[in-house]
Amino acid sequence: MNHPVAAVPAGAPSRRTVVTFLLTSTALAAGLGAALPAAAQTQALAGTVVRVRGEASATWSGLTRALVAGASVFVGDEIRTGAATRLEIRLGEGTKVTLGDHSTMVIEGAETAAVGGIIAILKGVFLGATRAIADLGRDSLTIRTSSAVLGVRGTVVWGEQQADKLGVNMLEGTLVTVTTPELTVFLTTPLDGTDIVAGQPPTPPRRWGDARLAASRAAVAF
Description:
Blueprint: E1 17-20, H1 25-29, E2 45-53, E3 56-60, E4 63-66, E5 72-74, E6 78-81, E7 86-92, E8 95-99, E9 104-109, E10 118-130, E11 141-144, E12 149-152, E13 155-161, E14 165-172, E15 176-179, E16 184-187, E17 192-197, E18 206-207, H2 210-218
């Protein structure tokens, strides 16, 4: 007797920037609304929207809801921002991510209510800010792309994911590692950045020009 086989969803994005954050149950519990969509109640809690300017939404299992300050976000949510939009989400104590306009990310997982989380930035501009957790002895933020892996701890890192290019700048902090199959680059000086094109080694660390730095900050500024 043949049994039905569950279909695997097709069309999963081939290029993803994955960000791993530390989560804390105390921070995630703050600001949660009592009423949640029925679909969201079956998902694991991942974080809370801190503030929004413009239009942002989260979609899961074909259902889309608008995101406002205080709204919860969940594992499996695909989050999109519209034109002239800024969205800031708290994903744990001392950990936040900000999206600029026309950006898309997916919250892919949370290990437990207290530790772990995976976010995929599919396109657009992001700012990740996380503080060092000394007793972990490891990076508190990991960003993976098709062309590089970024390791971050206690650092503010800016990035823009384009179709075949990722630009990264360490705005604050002491270390960001940028690893590709060809080479690892260490950003150790604030305002140093690198550009990574798929299949090529990252450019050597260098301070970005004032105009590029100003444009980068403006892309995520409220």
